[in-house]
Amino acid sequence: MARAVVAGNWKMNTSVAEARALAAELRESIGHMEGVDRVLCPPFPYLGMVRDAVTGSTIAVGAQNMSQHEKGAFTGEVSPGMVAELCTHVILGHSERRALYGETDEAVNLKVEAALKAGLTPIICVGETLAQREAGAAEAVVERQLVKAIDGVETPGALIVAYEPVWAIGTGVPATPDLAADIMGGVIQRVLESTYGATAASATPLLYGGSVTADSVRGFVEQECIHGALVGGASLRAEEFAEIVRTTAEVKG
Ligand code: PEP
Hints:
By secondary structure, the protein is of the alpha/beta class. 44% of the residues lie in helices and 14% in strands. An eight-stranded parallel beta barrel has the order 1-2-3-4-5-6-7-8, surrounded by six helices.
């Protein structure tokens, strides 16, 4: 059985003081829980500070992106090694990176390989746009994104996969739990099983992401094939994020 995981993607939000306060509050409320892994993903400049703020708790910290390159003349980029010195997880292939920064499936694959090599746990994001769903291509898109992302990755040991339908991100309108389960228990599970076998596939945490709130999370994590959530907007509200974590622990515990 896969571990339950709730990750908060803070995106490009918070000041230094706000990030410190958010991390400190979460350390108090959900710093010492069993049964659910908690990962905070602040902006790059705050990684070290947030790591320090949660030291002594069992909260993990992750980046929201990284370069596929080890080092060199890549102005503005952050290497896997730099990320790995500060935290344990990294979100890769987020739809905002794909849509706004032209991140391709090939680049995501290189980043996944580089993250694993650096000892990081990649949270691989996949998901279709509304136009792709309306064209009946949702499954094909998710399959292509996932197959390419894990191409050449021999064991799924450290992988987490997040299904984030693009039309549900930041809209306040999440997918339904049934729709998410169709994709996650269907095509995502199938790709993992055919690549790694049933046992390893079933140990890979699958997260739903897209307008998850304290009110909506229960329906998702009650699905057997959904092990947790990747939370954007609601992860900036300490009490609401803590409630999402508590509900996940209660349902999955
Ligand atoms: C995200 O961007 O990963 C996300 C899930 O955002 P939101 O929860 O705000 O839809």
